[in-house]
Design brief:
single chain, mainly alpha, four-stranded antiparallel sheet, 4 strands
């Protein structure tokens, strides 16, 4: 069927088309008027996501924000929020709700569960690209729709606050219990450290360790000096013995000559020799004055000899004293070294105790800070969700929408009418065009008689086309 045949059939069956279209429109109008009216109220809440975005990865803040908003929308449409709405609005105490529950559920189960299911079925949550979440609720009563939408918004805000506060309350209680144990651990560590200080008489561990270490350094220095002195005395004594073994005089030794007493005696001996020569020239060698001076000179020489011998002998004595002093210093150094090792071991134990105290102190302070934070957050009375706009009582029903239904009925009725025309035309054998006559019947065209309208003059030169009939017609 081409377009010309379709429009010819439509003109021929315009009554059927109009009847189907009118019936569709009338049925839709009656159905729209008979359906119960449903009202929809919409409330909106705004979610603050700045804190959440600051904790997320900076590479994908938009995705995380959308995910967070969707999570909040899921919380809003959860059973927990619906139960809070039932509790806050006291829907279970409504006689109409109880009557509906008895009629539909037959009294089986709990009315709260039935109400929660019905509320969630009529609830619509729209989370757009912004931080605003729209809450829509449909009901046959306009006031009920507005009250329930506002109830969902308020219950959502309260639930978000509870979800934030409840874990912090649990955390605050847990930290409070842990602080008691941590406080006891800190007190025990401090007691052990104080006992160790008291037992070992330690006022300042670092100061005592530095003093003892300085003393050990001084002993080491004294021991080194004593060893050098002993070696020097040994070298001097060895040199003196070699000089004496060659028959020399101790006066030849440089150390002996550098002695002030020896120098004084040598000076006196030189002066006495000079005076003795003077007396010999004046009085002669037998004069008593000369003899007295000679005796004095001999006494000085004997004193010088004894002094040099005592100095040489003092080398060995000083060496032995130096050796004894060296042994004492070495023993004192070993004792100090052992004492330092003991102090070091005690210092290690002391450091362990001090680290235990520091660790216990840090743990206690960290737990105390977390406890304070948890306690403060557990007392929060505001969440990151707030009601943006409350739902107003709708004045116009949301459904049924008569205008929209009639427009749809017009489209559907037109389609049904066209379908009816096509169906009837396919089951009817009437010839409505010259093309169908020639195609379907095979009868040749004899002529065309134009429609005559009274009052309209005939066209001049009207002709009739006459053709011979085919043999098969007869």
């Amino acid at each position: 069927m081409n377009a010309s045949l379709f429009f010819a059939a439509l003109r021929a069956r315009i009554g059927v088309f109009g009847l189907v279209l009118a019936a569709t429109l009338l049925a839709t109008l009656l159905l729209s008027l008979l359906l119960p009216r449903t009202y929809r109220a919409t409330a909106s809440v705004v979610v603050d996501t700045e804190q959440e975005q600051s904790l997320n990865n900076a590479l994908a803040p938009a995705r995380d924000r959308i995910s967070y908003i969707q999570t909040q929308a899921d919380i809003l449409a959860s059973e927990r929020v619906a139960r809070k709405v039932v509790h806050d609005l006291r829907l279970a105490e409504d006689p109409a709700a109880r009557a509906a529950f008895d009629a539909q559920a037959g009294g089986r189960g709990r009315i709260e569960d039935w109400l929660v299911t019905n509320l969630l079925q009529k609830l619509e949550v729209d989370s757009t690209q912004s931080n605003v979440i729209r809450i829509s609720f449909s009901s046959r009563n306009a006031r009920t729709a507005a009250a329930t939408a506002n109830g969902f918004a308020q219950a959502f805000v309260a639930t978000v606050l509870d979800l934030r506060v409840e874990p912090m309350r649990s955390a605050a209680t847990w930290f409070d219990e842990q602080l008691k144990t941590l406080r006891a651990n800190l007190a025990e560590a401090q007691r052990k450290l104080a006992d160790y200080h008291r037992q070992h008489g330690i006022v300042s561990a670092d100061e005592r360790y530095d003093v003892e270490y300085t003393r050990m350094g001084e002993l080491s220095s004294q021991l080194a000096r004593t060893q050098d002195q002993r070696l020097d005395l040994r070298a001097r004594a060895q040199q003196a013995r070699e000089v004496l073994a060659r028959g020399g005089s101790p006066e030849q030794l440089s150390d002996v000559q550098a002695t002030p007493q020896v120098q004084a005696l040598q000076t006196e001996i030189l002066q006495g020799e000079a005076k003795l020569r003077e007396l010999a020239s004046q009085y002669g060698v037998n004069h008593p004055t000369y003899q007295r001076q000679l005796a004095e000179n001999r006494g000085r020489r004997a004193a010088l000899y004894r002094l040099t011998r005592s100095i040489v002998a003092g080398y060995d004595n000083a060496g032995r004293q130096s050796r004894l002093h060296e042994d004492e210093l070495a023993s004192a150094l070993e004792t100090q070294r052992a004492h330092l090792l003991g102090l070091k071991e005690g210092r290690n134990e002391l450091e362990v105790l001090m680290r235990n105290v520091e660790a216990a102190q840090k743990t206690y302070e960290a737990a105390s800070q977390r406890f304070v934070v948890s306690q403060v957050e557990s007392r929060a009375n505001r969440a990151n969700v707030a009601m943006l706009s409350a739902a107003a009582v709708p004045r116009v029903p949301h459904s049924p929408k008569v205008g929209l239904n009639m427009a749809l009925a017009l489209v559907v009725g037109t389609a049904l009418g066209i379908g009816a025309v096509v169906f009837l035309e396919l089951n009817d054998r009437r010839i409505r065009s010259l093309v169908e006559l020639d195609r379907d019947v095979g009868v040749p065209l004899l002529g065309i008689i134009h429609a005559w309208h009274p009052g309209v003059p005939r066209l001049p030169g009207a002709r009739r086309a006459i053709a011979g009939l085919l043999p098969r017609i007869g």
